[in-house]
Amino acid sequence: MSLADLSGEILTYIITYGSVALGVTVLLAALGVPFPSTLFVLASGAFVQQGVLDLPSTLAVALLFVVTGDSLSYGMGRLLRRVIQRRFGRLESWRNAEAYFQQRGGIAIYLTRCLLTPIAVPTNWIAGSSGYRPLRFIGYAAAGELTWLLAYGGLGYLFGSQWEVVSAFVSDFSGLLVGLVMVGGGVYWWLRREK
Hints:
- The protein is 84% helix and 0% strand.
- The protein has 9 helices and no strands.
């Protein structure tokens, strides 16, 4: 079964079973299952506009499920903390990265929920394995996920039947943005190293 076929099946489940099907899908994506979850959020926004889904329940269920998925993914990193510390804990670069994440991790958590979504799961693992406080993580994750649901669901709602075109654009833009951030980070690291 191709990804397009699977996506079609999931969209059918969302139409048939409503917000719970969307919730399960975004929960699985938050755990690392490679679903195009932004596509499903855009489509759900269009389904709300068409009266197929109810806005308050869809938003509440999707937010609850995706934050639960993020928390479980964070927990995976937390469980592996000792293994990771044994492997990397003596490295100065790892300790510096952990300290930096403790100071600025909130913005990384928030942005990987709503803008840099392809790197959300690794960010969850890093947050968990670095000892980032659970309630802070959940707060930033919930804020970012709410922004993601409102922004992309809102686009689906606004564009209605054209949500597939918007989804293709968003997917391309998100990949480009992640690539630019990675190149920028690499250049920044290289420049600091040269000093």
